[in-house]
From TrEMBL:
Membrane-traversing stretches: 54-72, 131-157, 169-192, 204-223, 258-281
Similarity comment: Belongs to the ABC-2 integral membrane protein family.
Source organism: Novosphingobium aquae
Name of the molecule in the record: Transport permease protein
Subcellular location: Cell inner membrane; Membrane
Protein keywords: Cell membrane, Membrane, Transmembrane, Transmembrane helix, Transport
InterPro entries: ABC-2_transport_permease, ABC2_TM, ABC2_TM_bact-type, ABC_2_transport
Residue ranges of every copy of the ABC transmembrane type-2 domain listed in the record: 48-284
Membrane topology, from the record: Multi-pass membrane protein
Domain of life: Bacteria
Amino acid sequence: MADQPTSLVAGSKAAPRQFPAQGEPVIHRVNKLGLWTLYIKEVRRFIKVQTQTIWAPAITTLLQLVIFTVALGREGREVLGVSFATFVAPGLIVMGMMNNAFANSSFNFLSGKMQGTIVDYLMPPLSEIELMLGLIGAAVTRAVLVGLALAGAMWLYPGVHLGAPHLWAIVWFGLMGSMLLAFVGLLSSMWAEKFDHNAAITNFVIMPLTMLSGTFYVIDNLAPAFQTISRLNPIFYVISGFRFGFLGQSDIGSTNEAVLHGAIGLGVLNLVVGTVCFLLLKRGWKLKS
């Protein structure tokens, strides 16, 4: 008996076709269909509950704008030469984007572990990079949709006057910030064994970093030691760079050259975190037993 099963080509007496050996890859290049299918599956997952995944975060962030404007923006208070509401709005938009990117990617593997469906991610013929791209792409898509909903609401909010003098900064820092939190969410999803673990990352890591990133204040008002700590927070550069795109000024400068250093640093950080995520996926860390 032959080691490999054979099949005869129609119309030919000889010329048996050898099937590939067990374990030998059949798809030698990018599995575009599989990648697209995974991406669409993840997008449809949050679109089906869009009231919870898109509109609810937008309403919650808009309420934050109302509360902080009423509490701190009275009597025509200005920050960086604009009204307090205009100053806060860009930071709230990108903060909502980042939080939802993290929420989306941190749910994938964790829900699979809890429900016993983790094989749905591990069994399909997708490489680790394709698996990662599909999940991160869906998380960033959700972040962009939340950002668009927030931007539309804030443009209609009284007292908020947003332009777009530096569109590149809006696009770059919005995408890089969303990707960073999506990568962190995917790492959290691999590490966590239950939803409490994931909640701990959200409450003790993500929330403090986003709230202490200069969203509601300029770091020049802080003591020198706390200014240094703020500049070590990568989310500070996301908030400031995104704000620069709307207002033309921020904590890290008012020129393209000054903000460009933060943009490059953020891109390098994403590359590093993405590489770590890929290597852990390749090892099957806490995913394969």
